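Please, structure for the following, as tokens.
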Amino acid sequence: MSLQVSHLTKRFGEKTAVRDLSFRMDEPGIYGLIGTNGAGKTTTIRMMLGILRPDGGEATWDGKPISRGSLRYGYMPEERGIYMKTKILEQLVYFGQLRGMSRSAAAAAAKKYLERLGVTEYADTLAEKLSKGNQQKIQLIATLLHDPQLVILDEPFSGLDPLNTELLRGLITELAGQGKFIIMSSHQMSTVEEFCREITLLHRGDALLQGDLRKIKAGYGPTKLLLSLDEGTLDREAQDALAEQFGFLPKERLAAETVYAVPSQGAGQAGALLRVLLDRGAVPTKFELGEPSLHEIFLEKVGQEEVLEAAEVSQQKKGGGAA
């Protein structure tokens, strides 16, 4: 089984929402589509599923265009897609039947997921009576109850409290372990970093970065040093002064530690700093070289894109003036 997105393009008037986008999944797991609101994530998903007709390119499953006939898929959009005036179990059974399940099979699957997500008590309750977090759970059940091969989750953690977020995390991990192909669309970088091995970073319809997240981060090398010392061994001013001698400049002050930017010499200088700290009797409670977070990579890439776009606009204006 494989999912392939090839050269998808979508324009709305003069605006190009998605431009020549390609990526593929050849094995089960979780693929991240990341970017800010308006980056083109939802447009990409809707083209993949045939909800929007692309202006170019296609999405295929095992070489065939994606359709209800070629693939069992489940799509949880960011917007609510449940009937507010209908009882929960009643509408879940209806959704299951729309996907070809018998009434009894749909009811059994719905009850299983209601129990799994801790909302069995709402089976005979109107959807409008539920909190936003519980409505999100019901929408997720509607996405999963027909046992889809491909699961697409658009901002799945939006509006969830910490407890429900943890519950959903566990379920997504289970689904990946069951061999599902999962596309997760999100602007929450920490969420994508937790779940996704492969990513595409979209910005204004363009793919700025794609590939294995671990390899992408490793390519940057260590970019920060997290340092904290046992209280009473060295105050922060003395710690900063010593770190700066080895090229480590403070970039962020946290409650219990300081984050320093790593100089070009990197690990070698970190070792030298650690030896001097120990020689002075300082006791590190944390001394950790770290790769950049996905959030930091995102800000760098989007920042570079903004600079390039500004330069292009400036050049066009100059050209127009000369003409």
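The CA atoms of residues 60 and 66 lie 5 Å apart. The first helix runs from residue 41 to 48.
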